[in-house]
Amino acid sequence: MDDADPAEDAVARAVRRLAAGVVHELNNPLTVLQLRADLLLEAPVEAEDLREQLAVLRTSVARIAAVVRVLRWLGRPRPVVRAPAALGALVRQAAGAVDGEVRVEALPAVVLPCDAEALGFALELLLRAALDYDPPTVRGRVADGRIEVVVAAPSAPWPAQAIAPDATLEASSRWPGLGLGLAAGILAAHGGGLTSAPGVLVAALAAA
């Protein structure tokens, strides 16, 4: 007779998925860091070449920092505090938290009953995913009782699909699935969800 606890098995599977996602997310930028550092150490380079190499190193370090930020969020116990928050303020908060240009277009003047810290972090994760490809454009709309925040990065090769809260989405070495899986979980906790299509991420929320 098998005495295994199904709940414990589910937790173990979730931990393994998380560990696999962490390894995948950290291994690629760390490999780039090592190779670029080796190049800089092995041969003299011109100033312009050095700037290009350092730009690649900076991008890889930023990716690692983003993964660490996700893990810190996952591991930090925090109370859930729901209060009214303006969608525009949440988007601007997220845009201010990322290192890169973000263009914010028209957003509906709506106020959401939400955990503002969590929802702002979810939007930040979407912007970080987009910045891996292009400076993103953000716009919002209200339709069929739902609020949608659209993050566009035209060159991003995202698949057309709904993103599950526990997704790792290793579709390519540049696909930051760990963060998007977390963003999907936060959106789901607010009665919404996350979908992707080539060049677009769409965060859906229930209208108040």
Beta-strand residue percentage: 15-25%
Backbone shape: globular
Structural class: alpha+beta
Arithmetic mean of pLDDT: 80
Distance between the termini: 50 Å
Properties at a glance:
alpha+beta, six-stranded mixed β-sheet, 5 helices, 51% helix
Would you write up a description of this structure?
The chain is α+β, with helices and mostly antiparallel strands and 208 residues long. It has 5 helices and 8 strands; from the N terminus they run ααβαββαβββαββ. It has a 6-stranded mixed beta sheet. Strands 1-3 form a two-stranded antiparallel sheet. A hairpin with a 2-residue loop joins strand 4 and strand 5. The longest helix is centred in the N-terminal third of the chain and has 37 residues. The N and C termini lie far apart (50 Å). 28% of the residues are buried. About 4% of the residues have low confidence.
List the helices and strands and how they pair.
Blueprint: H1 6-42, H2 47-75, E1 83-86, H3 87-97, E2 103-104, E3 111-114, H4 116-131, E4 137-143, E5 146-152, E6 161-163, H5 177-189, E7 193-197, E8 200-206
Parallel strand pairs: 2-4
Antiparallel strand pairs: 1-3, 4-5, 5-8, 6-7, 7-8
Helix pairs in contact: 1-2, 3-4, 4-5
Compact summary:
The protein is α+β, with helices and mostly antiparallel strands and 208 residues long. It has helices at residues 6-42, 47-75, 87-97, 116-131, 177-189; strands at residues 83-86, 103-104, 111-114, 137-143, 146-152, 161-163, 193-197, 200-206. 51% of the residues lie in helices and 19% in strands.
